[in-house]
Amino acid sequence: MSCRGVEAPAIHYNPAMRIAKPMLMVTTPIGVGWGIIEAARFHWWLAVLMTLLVAVIAAFFWMTVARARRDAADSLRSASQDPTGRSAPHR
To answer: What is the mean pLDDT of the chain?
Structure first.
């Protein structure tokens, strides 16, 4: 693909990079927990604030996932209805 005559460089993926995602999924919660412990050692109220921040981020993430699942279920439900508005029999 080119944009104004400039060719975009080809992206080549190294198979060894497949380990990055599982490593991040393991090390990130460990790092967050360790950070909260270190904050508690420094000042207890800082650990409380950090924990509240993590809880708020988790709540927003959960609400986003719940909304996406609800929208997907609604679209499946509307797709299973026939043009007369009655729901199709379940199989």
So the answer is: 84
